Amino acid sequence: MNHRACRKATQLLSEAMERELTRSERLWVWCHLSLCRSCRRYGRQVRFLRRAVRVIPVTEAATS
Ligand SMILES: [Zn+2]
Asked: Ligand 1: distance of its center to the CA of 64 in Å?
């Protein structure tokens, strides 16, 4: 996994605690976490995953 993607992922994960990420940002982070163990561990620390799996289906339902 390249470092630039990991830096972007950790930045978005920390921003997710302060603001609502856009749908595309959430999807990007979610995809990166599925590939990257170290960012997944970081994501668990900030509890992003738990929120993301709840938020993404709601957003899908709202736009369809
Ligand atoms: Zn990563």
From this structure: 31
Q: Read off the pLDDT of residues 17-48 as tens digits, 9 standing for 90 and up.
A: 788 999 999 999 999 999 999 999 888 877 65
Q: Which residues are found with C-beta within 5 Å of the ion, ligand 1? A: 1, 6, 9, 36, 39
Residue 50 CA to ligand 1 centre (angstroms): 18
Buried b (16+ CB within 10 A) or exposed e, 39-61: bbebbeeeebeebbeebeeeeee
Closest CA to 6 of 47, 37, 51: 37
pTM: 0.67
State which amino acid sits at residue 30. Answer: W
CB atoms within 10 A of CB 22: 11
